[in-house]
C-alpha cells in the first residue's frame, strides 16, 4: 500500500465554486471543504460585490485555478496577454495551482468544447513546447488534465503513452481526472485500473472526480451533471492505494443540487481519504512502538 503523501500545496477534499452556491460559501466554508477551484476566465477583473465576495472566499480557503481556454493543443499561437492576466490572478489570490486540459478548443475562434489532440510523436513535442512556454509566462509549473474523448483521429500512440510523454517532456504537473479514465475505459474498451496505475503518480497536483451520463452500455458521456457512481468511487480508492492520498475535488457543472446535498459527495471523498490516512497513521505508530 502506498504511504500518505503530504507534499501537496493543498490537502484534503475540495469543491468547484459555482454561482448557485456563491453567497452561502462566501458567508461560511463548510469544514469538509479544504480547498476550492475556479476557472480564472470567469473571475479575472471581476469587481463590485461579486469580486469582493470572491476575495472573501479566497481569504478563507485555498483556491486553485482550472482553466477552460488555454487551447494548449490548438494551431493558434498561445494568448500571451491572457496568460499574463492569469499570472496576475494567481499571484493576487495566492493560488497554488493552475491547470488546464490536455486538448484543444479552437483556432482563431473558440469551439466551446474540448477536442482530443492527435496521439502522435509530433503532437507530444508541439504540446510540450507550448506547456513550457506557458510555464515561463506564468512563472510556475502548471498541471495538465487528462480529458474524455470520443474519437482519436490520427492516433499513432496509445493514450497512456501520449499523456506520459507530454508530462515528461514538458516537466509539468498532472491534474488527474478519475471520471475521465472511467468514461474513456468504457468508450475505448481498456482496463481503467491498469491505465491509472501506469500514470506518473509523483506528478499529481490534485484530482477531479465527477459524474457522467449513461448513454449506452458501451457509451458514457462526460457531463459533470450527475452523482458519482460506485465504479468511479472504487477507482479513486485504487488511486489512493496506488499513489497515496492526494487532494481530490468534486466537479459538478450541471443540474447542481443544493449545497447540503452536494456536500454529501465531498464527505465521501473525505471518508475514503481518512481510510488511507488511518492506515498510514497505524503503520507509523507500529514502526515507532
Tell me what you see in this structure.
This protein is an alpha/beta fold and 289 residues long. The protein has a single domain, classed as TIM Barrel (Alpha-Beta Barrel). The protein is 42% helix and 17% strand. The chain has nine helices and twelve strands. The protein has an eight-stranded parallel β-barrel. It has a two-stranded antiparallel ribbon with strand order 5-6. The longest helix is centred in the last third of the chain and has 29 residues, at 259-287. The chain is globular and about 50 Å long. The model is unreliable at 1-5 (pLDDT under 50).
SSE topology string: EHEHEHEEEHEHEHHEEEHEH
Widest β-sheet, arrangement of strands: 1-2-3-4-7-8-9-12
Q: What's the quaternary structure here?
A: single chain
Q: How far is it from the N-terminal to the C-terminal residue, by CA?
A: 20 Å
Q: Write out the CATH superfamily name.
A: Divalent-metal-dependent TIM barrel enzymes
In what range is the share of β-strand residues? 15-25%
Averaged pLDDT, please? 90
Amino acid at each position: 500500500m502506498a504511504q500518505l503523501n503530504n507534499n501537496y500545496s493543498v490537502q484534503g477534499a475540495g469543491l468547484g465554486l459555482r454561482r448557485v452556491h456563491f453567497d452561502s460559501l462566501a458567508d461560511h466554508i463548510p469544514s469538509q471543504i479544504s480547498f476550492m477551484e475556479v476557472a480564472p476566465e470567469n473571475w479575472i477583473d471581476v469587481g463590485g460585490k461579486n469580486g469582493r465576495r470572491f476575495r472573501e472566499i479566497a481569504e478563507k480557503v485555498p483556491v486553485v485555478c482550472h482553466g477552460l481556454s488555454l487551447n494548449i493543443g490548438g494551431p493558434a499561437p498561445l494568448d500571451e496577454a491572457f496568460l499574463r492576466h492569469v499570472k496576475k490572478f494567481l499571484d493576487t489570490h495566492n493560488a497554488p495551482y493552475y491547470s488546464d486540459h490536455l486538448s484543444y478548443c479552437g483556432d482563431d475562434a473558440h469551439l466551446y468544447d474540448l477536442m482530443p489532440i492527435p496521439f502522435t510523436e509530433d503532437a507530444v513535442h508541439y504540446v510540450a513546447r507550448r506547456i513550457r512556454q506557458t510555464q515561463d509566462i506564468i512563472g510556475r509549473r502548471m498541471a495538465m488534465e487528462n480529458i474524455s474523448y470520443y474519437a482519436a483521429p490520427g492516433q499513432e500512440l496509445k493514450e497512456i503513452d501520449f499523456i506520459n510523454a507530454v508530462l515528461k517532456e514538458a516537466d509539468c504537473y498532472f491534474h488527474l481526472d478519475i471520471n475521465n479514465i472511467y468514461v474513456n475505459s468504457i468508450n475505448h474498451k481498456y482496463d481503467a485500473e491498469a491505465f491509472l496505475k501506469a500514470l506518473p503518480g509523483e506528478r499529481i497536483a490534485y484530482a477531479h472526480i465527477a459524474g457522467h451520463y449513461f448513454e449506452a452500455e458501451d457509451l458514457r458521456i462526460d457531463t459533470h451533471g450527475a452523482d458519482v457512481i460506485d465504479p468511479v468511487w472504487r477507482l479513486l480508492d485504487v488511486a489512493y492505494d496506488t499513489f497515496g492520498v492526494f487532494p481530490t475535488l468534486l466537479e459538478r457543472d450541471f443540474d447542481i443540487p443544493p449545497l447540503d446535498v452536494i456536500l454529501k459527495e465531498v464527505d465521501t471523498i473525505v471518508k475514503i481519504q481518512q481510510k488511507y490516512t488511518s492506515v498510514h497513521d497505524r503503520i507509523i505508530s507500529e514502526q515507532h512502538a
